[in-house]
């Protein structure tokens, strides 16, 4: 646009002042938005077309510059002023007047960088809105700055007071970061007598841990107090490493220790009795009756698995009268034990051997003696397998009889029928051999079997009406009785089924 010429309107005059003359509309060309500042930035020139426009983009007339203009700011060259006369063909008609009024010459206005807002409300030209020139509110801004400064000082004082109070509170009460979560209070510690905790509390003082060492080996096992004289019942394989001159240390649940001595042992039953002396306050563990046990009854096993003394586990009776054999490391069969066992799923591990299996009344119903481990659970380098829920305990009725004999004589008696069994027989039942040990007869002359009419080659299939499937199982069933007990046997001879009765004899165990 040439300097000194008025801007030509984009459209014909509109007497109703509709956009683009009365105000910006979405169809009006929108110049770049500029923010108003008191003084343009140094080195920035204002385009001539924006040197004097009103809020709607209409050129505002400027008067001649005063004869003594103010010195420009250093480094800034103001743009040249252009004198413009009102265009008589396009007078501005304010909405509040009935007829157009001619524009009056106005004093020169300082050049300003104005804001154009294409979406704002229409405004009258700046020349028709009298008021203080831009930049005249400096005093008010100073006033505001003073008020803000005073408010900031007051806020700092208040914050300082609050901070001091919080600091004092923190010092007196241990800090604001202290956290206390809700928690139940301590109880009396009492538990129902038939609960696992109640059973454990009652039985633990009677359970001991045995550390056994000999010339070639050592081990750890468990036992429990039988009487106030200091007799302790455990497994034979627990004390076996001590031999005839080894050392046995007995540790009670409270931590007291004492030296133990072997009173008697029996490998056939895998039971042994150890005695401690000089110990007061012994608490015998009550003995129950294993004949009263039913499958599914709850039980608790106590011992020192892997030398972790006072360990308590719980489970149920999984089966009764489970024939098992254990031992046999010597190779001659003299160390094999035959047990008509109680089976339990209470976890039993190495070190539990000899410990008590107690019922819901905290009475001993079995002596934990063996486990069935997974095939991959043992190691070829002496590692020991863990529990898979198949544990076996010697019934306490058998343990009681053997313990009484060991305390009384140092030896236990075994019930026998006076025959030699063919342990290589693979058929169903237990077959009587044709020859005994060292060339002796398979049926001992004058023995219980001979008196009952048993002959070599007979196959015994039942004991008191219960089926027998092997020679080991027959031995287990016989040893579950006492010498002198009378048994009814079923057998097969030459394809015929026979029934006989006999009275068990006695033999001294080893």
What does this structure look like?
- The structure is a single chain.
- The chain is an alpha+beta fold.
- 15% of the residues lie in helices and 24% in strands.
- The chain has helices at residues 138-173, 196-203, 236-239, 396-409, 448-452, 471-479; strands at 207-213, 218-225, 231-234, 247-252, 257-266, 271-276, 298-303, 311-326, 337-344, 356-358, 364-371, 391-395, 413-416, 430-431, 459-463, 466-467, 486-493, 496-503, 505-508.
- The strands form 4 sheets. The protein has a 6-stranded antiparallel β-barrel with strand order 1-2-3-6-5-4. A 6-stranded antiparallel β-barrel has the order 7-8-9-12-11-10. Strands 14, 15, 16, 17 and 18 form a 5-stranded antiparallel β-sheet that branches.
- It is elongated.
- The N and C termini lie far apart (130 Å).
- 28% of the residues are buried.
- Residues 21-46, 50-78, 81-101, 107-129 and 376-382 have low confidence and may be disordered.
């Amino acid at each position: 646009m040439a300097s000194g010429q008025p801007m030509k309107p984009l459209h014909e005059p509109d007497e109703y002042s509709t956009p683009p003359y009365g105000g910006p509309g979405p169809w009006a060309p929108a110049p770049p938005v500029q923010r108003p500042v008191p003084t343009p930035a140094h080195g920035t020139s204002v385009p001539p077309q924006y040197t004097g426009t009103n809020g709607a983009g209409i050129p505002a007339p400027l008067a001649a510059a005063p004869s003594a203009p103010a010195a420009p700011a250093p480094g800034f060259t103001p743009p040249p002023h252009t004198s413009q006369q009102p265009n008589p063909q396009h007078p501005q008609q304010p909405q509040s007047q009935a007829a157009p009024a001619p524009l009056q010459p106005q004093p020169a206005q300082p050049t300003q960088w104005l804001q154009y807002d294409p979406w704002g409300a229409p405004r009258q030209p700046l020349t028709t809105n009298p008021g203080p020139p831009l930049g005249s509110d400096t005093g008010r801004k100073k006033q505001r700055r003073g008020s803000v400064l005073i408010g900031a000082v007051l806020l700092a004082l208040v914050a300082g007071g609050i901070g001091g109070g919080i600091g004092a509170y923190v010092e007196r009460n241990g800090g604001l970061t202290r956290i206390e979560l809700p928690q139940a209070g301590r109880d009396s510690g009492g538990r129902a007598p038939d609960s696992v905790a109640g059973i454990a509390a009652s039985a633990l003082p009677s359970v001991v841990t045995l550390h056994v060492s000999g010339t070639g080996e050592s081990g750890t096992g468990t036992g429990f107090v039988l009487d106030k004289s200091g007799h302790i019942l455990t497994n034979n394989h627990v004390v076996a490493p001590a031999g005839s001159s080894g050392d046995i240390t007995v540790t009670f649940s409270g931590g007291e220790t004492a030296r133990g001595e072997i009173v008697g042992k029996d490998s056939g039953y895998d039971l042994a009795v150890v005695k401690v002396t000089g110990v007061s306050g012994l608490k015998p563990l009550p003995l129950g009756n294993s004949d009263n046990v039913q499958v599914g009854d709850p039980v608790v096993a106590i011992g020192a698995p892997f030398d972790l003394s006072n360990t308590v586990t719980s489970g149920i009776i999984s089966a009764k009268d489970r024939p098992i054999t254990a031992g046999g490391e010597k190779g001659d069969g003299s160390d094999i034990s035959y047990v008509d066992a109680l089976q339990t799923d209470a976890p039993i591990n190495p070190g539990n051997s000899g410990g008590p299996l107690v019922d819901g009344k905290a009475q001993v119903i079995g002596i934990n003696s063996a486990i069935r481990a997974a095939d991959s659970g043992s190691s070829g380098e002496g590692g020991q397998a863990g529990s898979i829920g198949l544990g076996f305990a010697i019934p306490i009725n058998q343990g009681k009889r053997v313990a009484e004999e060991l305390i009384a004589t140092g030896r236990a008696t075994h019930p026998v029928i006076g025959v030699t069994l063919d342990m290589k027989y693979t058929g169903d039942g237990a077959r009587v051999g044709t020859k005994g040990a060292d060339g002796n007869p398979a049926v001992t002359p004058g023995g219980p079997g001979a008196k009952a009419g048993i002959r070599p080659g007979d196959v015994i299939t039942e004991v008191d009406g219960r089926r027998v499937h092997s020679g080991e199982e027959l031995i287990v069933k016989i040893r579950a009785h006492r010498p002198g007990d009378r048994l009814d046997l079923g057998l097969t001879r030459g394809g015929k089924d026979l029934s006989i009765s006999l009275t068990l004899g006695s033999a001294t165990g080893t």
